[in-house]
Design goal:
With 653 residues, the chain is mainly alpha-helical. The protein is built from 31 helices and seven strands. The chain has a four-stranded mixed sheet. A hairpin with a 5-residue loop joins β1 and β2. About 11% of the residues have low confidence.
Length: 653
């Protein structure tokens, strides 16, 4: 095998160790090889076109894909990419790939070969212009591979320690510390391993280096355990005991994290000093940001005078609060040491983030940058949890990732109501209604005036068959934020769940005047008209979704046509949706709609059962709440619907 494809630490296509050049290494062709190699299974042509050429129409995109495959086969080998019907598959027997070898090595008894293959982040520095779905796919894969490498390194280090192989344990912890130099838990483990190997000086040096790294780059302190061990190494002459328990793993305990400076209560005698320090901080932040904006250099994306002003105003509010003698807890958004982290938090909190996929993706990136700068910033972790599902879509892996961020926020600050609400949402996705109820109650007790929590609980109540409670929650959200663009929509959704369709349409009318209206408005208006059997109006209401090419909107149109007696047209839409499902572009759930409209309950439940088996209903709150969609107006009373609800955990536990 003379050709090799390396995807860790960048992208390289080589022959006998020499990088190739020419048409085969054009960016889209390398991206095609990367997708096929990392997938390790056949990928449909339609999915590849959507990932790599989303801005092209179907036929031009297919021609570009065929040309890319032809060039790769001609340059490397005719069998490099195999055709499996309408799908393509990477042939690792023809071209060696580090990603394929890495995943194979993970299944082997020893993990040393796997971590040896990981040369850096997946597709590091590689991107495609105007291909947002490809960017999201790369980020998911990059996170997956990095986590697998970290787990393998820690497993090797732990195994070495258990067999008293101190040198090996030190080596593996060193590798893991280089992989994640900002993690104080890993730094502590390495220091303890060095002490166990008799290298106190090395342990002290690493502790001081880690401390300096966090202070200089992230403006935070290491965990107290690291600082304590540094002091013991400095001052204790005797041999140091190494039995101190390590820091917690993925969910650190709040008590182990440094208390943010602005939260520490100040006795009256120290208030003047604190106010002076905050004044200097405010002036320095405003001066630095203003100078940056006025300079000839381009400021970071999203850094605007408004952001600078918001930072200055936030610090000014803190000054006034402290000057007035209020030493209570600082608002969650301000519980950070880092001005830069707070700036990214503000950018991520922009309400426009929910209006488009690209804006939501940028908001998630801003929250991620905030926690990179201050890993103890609980409010930013809550932002990561909030945007994870919005950006990455349904699926167990995404749910677990979002839930982990919510749990981290709570581990850092259990008083954060938003984090409790988000954990409730993620627990409800898993059907754990007992935990969801508990965390919603905690969220509202902690932040009773937060409207968004009420909106989320309203949707949750609808999904769990409690429409009366859902309406009460939605109305409470609207009372808290009467100018919110989302609260009226949730009231309308709850009104539809209570079969008050005229009231729902009246509530939605002002939202249609927004430019653009929130995406959730169109299906709610359509459902309102469907309740009144106004099928032409319902179809017209869904036009914003069909214009943007959303296949879910097409399923709604097919349903309305079926109910309107336009059987042939409805069946034609169903056939088209079936083809899209076979190409992997649509969930099975949406194939139930036309059969339900045409009275074919057996076929409708067959597709719903398939959707359940694929996890589409279990892990997608949109589809779970979808049990209040018009589709189910035709299925109510069927015992199979109640059985499906029980399987989804809709009965309270």
């Amino acid at each position: 095998m003379s050709f090799s494809l390396k995807l860790f630490g960048g992208v390289s296509l080589e022959r006998a160790g020499t990088p190739l050049s020419g048409p085969v290494v054009q960016r889209h062709r390398l991206a095609l090889l990367a997708v096929l190699a990392a997938s390790r299974r056949p990928v449909s042509r339609d999915k590849l076109m959507a990932l790599l050429w989303p801005d092209r129409d179907t036929e031009p995109a297919r021609q570009l894909l065929n040309q890319a495959v032809h060039t790769i086969r001609r340059t490397l080998s005719p069998d490099t990419i195999l055709s499996v019907g309408e799908e393509l598959q990477f042939n690792s027997a023809e071209v060696w790939c580090d990603v394929v070898a890495f995943e194979e090595a993970l299944a082997e008894p020893g993990l040393a070969r796997a971590v040896g293959l990981y040369a850096g982040p997946f597709l590091d520095g590689f991107f495609l212009s105007e291909a947002p779905e490809f960017d999201r796919w790369v980020e998911r894969e990059r996170t997956r591979f990095a986590a697998a490498c970290a787990r393998s390194l820690e497993s090797l280090a732990t195994a070495a320690a258990q067999t008293d192989d101190a040198p090996a344990a030190v080596e593996w912890w060193k590798r893991l510390a280089a992989h994640d130099p900002y993690d104080s838990r890993i730094a502590l483990q390495l220091m303890q391993a060095l002490v166990g190997a008799g290298n106190r000086a090395g342990a002290l040096q690493h502790g001081l280096t880690h401390q300096r790294l966090l202070r200089e780059e992230l403006e935070i302190e290491p965990a107290p355990e690291v600082l304590a061990l540094v002091e013991r190494l400095r001052h204790e002459p005797a041999a140091l005991a190494t039995s101190r328990p390590p820091l917690p793993g993925p969910a650190p305990v709040a008590a182990t994290m440094p208390e943010p400076v602005l939260e520490r209560p100040s006795p009256p005698g120290r208030r003047r000093t604190l106010v002076a320090a905050l004044t200097v901080l405010a002036l320095a932040a405003t001066w630095a940001a203003t100078r940056m904006l006025q300079s000839r250099e381009s400021p970071p994306a999203g850094t605007t005078p408004a952001v600078v002003d918001e930072i200055a105003q936030a610090v000014a509010r803190e000054l006034r609060r402290r000057e007035g003698g209020d030493t209570g807890r600082t608002p969650a958004a301000l519980r950070t040491h880092s001005i830069a982290a707070y700036e990214f938090y503000l950018k991520g909190s922009d309400p426009a983030a929910i209006r488009s996929d690209s804006a939501a993706r940028k908001a998630l990136e801003n929250f991620q940058r905030a926690v990179a700068l201050d890993s103890s910033y609980a409010a930013a972790w809550a932002g990561v949890a909030r945007l994870t599902y919005r950006v990455l879509g349904p699926g167990k892996a995404v749910r677990d990732q979002g839930e982990a961020a919510a749990r981290k926020a709570l581990a850092l600050d259990d008083s954060l109501g938003e984090a409790h609400a988000l954990l409730a949402v993620y627990r409800s996705m898993a059907g754990d209604t007992r935990a969801a109820d508990y965390h919603f109650e905690r969220a509202i007790a902690l932040e009773p005036k937060r409207a968004r929590t009420r909106e989320w609980r309203s949707s949750y109540y609808l999904a769990t068959g409690r429409p009366t409670e859902a309406l009460a929650e939605a109305e409470q959200a609207l009372a808290l934020e009467p100018l919110s663009p989302t609260a009226p929509a949730e009231v309308a959704r709850a009104l539809i769940g209570n079969h008050r369709c005229d009231d729902a349409l009246a509530k939605l009318k002002p939202l249609l005047a927004l430019d653009p209206p929130p995406l959730r408005v169109a299906p709610l208006v359509a459902h309102g008209y469907a309740c009144k059997a106004m099928w032409a109006e319902a179809m017209k209401a869904m036009e914003p979704w069909t214009r943007r090419g959303d296949l879910r909107g097409v399923a709604w149109i097919g349903y309305f046509k079926g109910r309107a007696g336009q059987t042939a047209e409805a069946q034609a839409i169903h056939a088209d949706l079936l083809a899209r499902w076979r190409d992997g572009k649509l969930e099975a759930y949406w194939l139930a709609w036309v059969p339900a409209a045409l009275g074919d309950r057996d076929q409708a439940f067959s597709w719903l059962d398939r959707a359940f088996e694929k996890g589409e209903l279990e892990f997608s709150p949109g589809l779970r709440v979808g049990l209040t969609d018009p589709l189910f107006d035709d299925l109510r009373g069927d015992p199979r619907l109640e059985a499906l609800r029980r399987r989804l955990g809709f009965q309270r536990r």
